[in-house]
Design goal:
Elements (H helix, E strand, L loop, with lengths): L1 E8 L3 H12 L4 E4 L6 H4 L30 H14 L4 E2 L2 E9 L2 E8 L4 E11 L20 E2 L12 E5 L3 H12 L3 E6 L13 H10 L3 E4 L2 E6 L2 E6 L2 E6 L2 E4 L7 H6 L25 E3 L14 H4 L2 H14 L1
Parallel strand pairs: 1-2, 1-6, 2-3, 6-15, 7-14, 8-9, 8-14, 9-10
Antiparallel strand pairs: 4-5, 5-6, 11-12, 12-13
Helix pairs in contact: 1-8, 4-5
């Protein structure tokens, strides 16, 4: 059985940053990732450009360069691969954590790899950097399990000349609606609120609002999806029920941390905010020896932690773990 000073669960930018900081303190470290390295970024829209500048995405002191002022998804994927290679990080991709047993200084981590093989590791400390992008907020309506329903936006091309319903009123939904329209899809936007979110990027919102005003994109506000069928959707509008033709549904209603997974590991959650209870100085949870990093620290308040600030959790956690193991 492989033994480590620390095991990091999650190979996103924050998880990689934690592994680098731990490794730099001569702590034997491995990263377990259920998908590919920086799996969430891989699932971002194909042609996405970050809203931030390259230096705010950097980890491990390795400069990030981009062709333009803002880096693209492709540039970010290449950068994080290069960082992992530079530090020779031990990353176990496509391996899912099934259970974390034991106690502080004597944990046993059970996993299953992509071939169905079960593995076990021993670790003195655990760092959970599992992010939130893997768990979409569901509509919880009949028909949501149909193959035509997607909770992630990649690109517009496959939807050309089809009736597409976009559910949501924030950035992802707004961008998807416009790109679909520009690519020849017949777009309907549905949002439970009275209008588009004020947080939609300032160069996107008026563009979409103009397309709605002109009738090029249909929009129903204060409206929810009641049912999804193979060839249509049923909407609950302020004027009553409305059934419209539909080929695809893009439910872009946001994502959340896997709080059930955290709870199954014995991580206590605040009953009101759903934030995991952690020591702010060390980010250690109430389960001794288990530290949290990145967006999972914020619970359901996922707009408080991003790559830009979550990447700094690694140094805080590594210093705490190194001091504890040295003592």
């Amino acid at each position: 059985m492989n033994e480590y000073d620390a095991l990091v669960v999650g190979a996103g930018p924050t998880g990689l940053a934690c592994a680098i900081e731990l490794q730099q303190r001569n702590l034997k470290t491995a990263v377990i990732e259920k998908g590919c390295i920086v799996n969430s970024l891989y699932h971002y829209p194909t042609h996405m450009t970050f809203f931030t500048t390259p230096e705010l995405l950097e980890i491990g002191g390795i400069p990030m360069t981009s062709m333009y002022e803002k880096p693209t998804r492709t540039e970010a994927l290449k950068y994080y691969r290069r960082v992992a290679e530079h530090y020779r990080l031990e990353v176990h991709q496509y391996e899912r954590v099934d259970a974390i047993k034991g106690r502080d200084l004597a944990f046993q981590v059970d996993t299953t790899d992509r071939l169905g093989c079960r593995r076990q590791y021993r670790a003195r400390k655990i760092v959970l950097a599992t992010g939130y992008y893997d768990v979409p907020n569901l509509l919880n309506v009949p028909g949501e399990s149909l193959e035509k329903v997607q909770h992630y936006w990649k690109e517009a091309h496959p939807y050309y000349a089809h009736d597409v319903l976009v559910v949501g009123g924030k950035n992802s939904a707004a961008i998807a609606a416009l790109e679909l329209h520009w690519s020849g899809a017949r777009v309907t936007l549905v949002h439970r609120g009275p209008g588009l979110s004020d947080h939609v990027k300032y160069w996107i919102k008026p563009n979409l609002e103009n397309r709605i005003k002109s009738g090029e994109i249909k929009a129903y506000f204060n409206t929810t999806v009641r049912e999804i069928r193979p060839d249509s959707v049923l909407l609950a509008t302020p004027e009553g029920e409305l059934r419209i033709p539909n080929d695809f549904v893009l439910a872009l209603t946001g994502y959340r941390p896997d709080l059930e997974f955290l709870a199954s590991l014995g991580i206590a959650l605040d009953s009101d905010t759903r934030r995991p209870r952690t020591n702010p100085q060390t980010l250690e949870s109430e389960r001794a020896g288990v530290h949290l990093a990145g967006v999972v620290v914020a619970g359901m308040h996922t707009n408080e932690v991003f790559i830009e600030n979550g990447r700094h959790h690694g140094k805080l956690i590594a210093e705490a773990i190194a001091a504890n193991l040295a003592g």
